[in-house]
Amino acid sequence: GIQAIPYPPFRLRLLPHPDWQESETTLLKVMRLVLCQCGLACIVLTWALIGALVFHLTEAPREYSQVIEMNRRQTELVVGLATDLRQVVPEEPVWRTTIEQYATHHEALILSAVSSGYPQRGTIWTYCGCLLFATSLLTTLGFGAPVPRTVTGRICAIVFAGVGIPVHLLLVLNFGLLLAVKLHHLSRVSQRKLVRLHRQLTNPKSQEEDWPEDIFTPDDTPPPPPSWIKFFPFVAIPVYYCLGLLLFGVFRDKTFPEVLLFPLDFTAAGGVASRYGPLRVAYAAYLEGAVILASTNVALLRVTATRGFTTLGIKLGLMINSHK
């Protein structure tokens, strides 16, 4: 059972090596400074902020001019309709025909605006909205996200995703593994304390006879992990979703069906243009937390996998030796 190895795989350091400034070459010094989790986090954060600024500069002017043009054409339709209706007698056939013609023109105007990315209300490509779009690209959780309409914006989106997604994935995988190992260590420490407390309560003895338990535990055979940590990945996801229900549903006074579907409020069709800036940034942070939680759960399942699960997978033909 190669899957049941109790020791986690290697991961990037959280901080640079203590002697990174004493590296032999400048390249090695830069690599040690950058290729750590804090260094990658700074790179990803800077990349997201720069990407949001680029999207704002490329898409916001077009959206602003589109809103002005839409308002101008609607005003022309209203004025034209009012002018033509004054020239006809009400309830005559020409009166109804005139109204139907302008209604058709207005319908065509709306369809043309929607197909070109006109927002329902508000503005999509504000800086906060662009930051949410950049986060959705990095996390690959941007279902229903707005799409850049300019050629420059689409090219920037491809470059942004091509560079940012691999770096972000590398950061999230290593950070999730770090959290999984820390949580695994915390569970073992708490388990030892609970066992020691239980023994003291059930079999009290003098302080002189209280031997440390580590003396009787071999270093190369760590104790099995607590049972609750095996169920942590399956409990953490519903709990995190309920947190989203509270933050983006209940606290915003949404009705019951809307509370359950709160992610749809941050899509282009769901009216993300009408959401104020801090709420969009908060949802971007929520998406990032969801990706980190998913990475942590995957790492926990790898670290806490038991030999029984591996044996069952081999019997069912679901697993194969990695060396084959």
From TrEMBL:
InterPro entries: 2pore_dom_K_chnl (IPR003280), K_chnl_dom (IPR013099)
Intracellular or extracellular location(s): Membrane
Protein name: Potassium channel domain-containing protein
Keywords linked to the UniProt accession: Ion channel, Ion transport, Membrane, Transmembrane, Transmembrane helix, Transport
GO biological process: stabilization of membrane potential
UniProt keyword Hydrolase present: no
Domain Potassium channel positions: 124-176
Keyword Membrane: yes
Membrane-topology descriptor: Multi-pass membrane protein
Organism, as annotated: Homalodisca liturata
Entry's Gene Ontology cellular component terms: plasma membrane
TM regions (residue ranges): 33-55, 124-143, 155-181, 231-251
GO terms of molecular function: outward rectifier potassium channel activity; potassium ion leak channel activity
